[in-house]
Structure formats: C-alpha cells, structure tokens
Design goal:
Number of domains: 2
Oligomer: single chain
Number of helices: 4
Mean pLDDT: 81
Largest sheet: 4 strands, mixed
Order of helices and strands: EHHEEHEHEEEE
Helix content: 10-25%
Number of strands: 8
CATH topology of the largest domain: GMP Synthetase, Chain A, domain 3
CATH class of the largest domain: Alpha Beta
Strand content: 15-25%
Distance between the termini: 33 Å
C-alpha cells in the first residue's frame, strides 16, 4: 500500500493500484445501516483509504451529521467487510469538512427514489458563492419553496409535514395526490 492518501473524490488525482481497487471493492459492499439500498460509498460517507504514519491502513468516514446514531454500526460494518478480505484497518471519523449531499452519487439519488425517499433536489452550494457551513437555514427574500416530487407517484403536489423525518438528515413530506408520506433527504 503506498504511503500517500488514496482519496475517493470526484476527480482521481492518482493512478489507483490493484490493491486500492481491491479495498474499494470490499468497501462497496458496506451498506448504509439506515438506508440499506445504498452503499456508504454511494452516499459519500466513505471518504478515503490511506496509509497512516505508522504504516497501518486507515479508512476515513464522514457522517451525514455529527450526531448520527449509526456511526458505530458503520464503523463495525467497514471493519467486518475488510476482515472478509483479510484486511485489518482502523476506521477514522472525520467531521471536517462536513458531509454534503453534493458527495452523493447519481446512483445513490436514483436508489433513494426507488426506495421511496426523495433525494435532495438542489446542490447544497447551488446559490452560495462560498461553501459556508450554516447551522440554521436562511431563506433569502423572495425564496421559492423547493419542489419535492413524490417518489411514489411523481407528483409535485407535496408538502412538508415535519422538518425532521425518520432521521435528522431527512424531512417528512406527504404527497397531496396519492396521500403517501415519504422522507426527503435534505440538501446539506
């Protein structure tokens, strides 16, 4: 394993090695414990595989929010997946930069929709000149409500019923046409 960091970014800066591909193949099997149709990699939670200063292997994960109750399960699942391939690694939780829905793959968005969860509709940085961490949503004057289509019937006649859904990273919506409730993955 090379000493440099092998990062999972949208643009590959290094030529991955065969060992790198084998590690990511093992990690691809790790599903999100709260949304089992998507992998941690598709969600952008798995951030990097790297060699630590002492030569050991580290897998870097960033939770969707710092209080995520599934972090311990994600840690254990990463360790177990690597162990199946005979690999021992330390899992490192990295909170900065904060996770963003921009890190989700298009495949994750489609899988969420098929599972009944509306994926984020806008980039978290779409209308910001800088990527600034905000602790409370600030709606500019003249802000138009984000249209969230129903993942069941496709109708845009939906309404938010609770800003927090089954987890803090989702909001609860209801379709006013088919009357089905659904989670919406909030853009961060």
């Amino acid at each position: 394993m090379p000493a440099e960091s092998l990062s999972l970014g949208p643009i590959a800066e290094k030529q991955p090695t065969e060992a790198y591909h084998a590690l990511w193949t093992l990690l691809e099997s790790v599903k999100d414990p709260e949304i089992p149709v998507v992998s941690l990699r598709e969600m952008g939670i798995l951030r990097a595989v790297r060699a630590a200063a002492d030569g050991s292997l580290e897998v870097v994960i960033t939770p969707t929010y710092s209080g995520c109750p599934a972090m311990e399960q994600m840690h254990d699942d990463v360790v177990a997946a690597l162990a199946l391939g005979g690999v021992t690694a330390r899992v490192v939780t990295q909170l900065a930069p904060a996770w963003s829905t921009d890190w989700m793959t298009p495949q994750a968005n489609e899988k969420l929709r098929a599972y009944g969860i509306a994926p984020p509709q806008v980039s978290s940085c779409a209308n910001q000149a800088l990527n600034v961490l905000q602790f409370a949503a600030k709606k500019p004057a003249g802000h138009v409500h984000t249209v969230v289509p129903c993942p069941q019937c496709g109708s845009v006649n939906t309404t938010e019923t609770s800003h927090f859904g089954s987890t803090a990273c989702k909001a609860l919506y209801r379709c006013l046409d088919c009357m089905e409730p659904f989670d919406y993955f909030k853009p961060y």
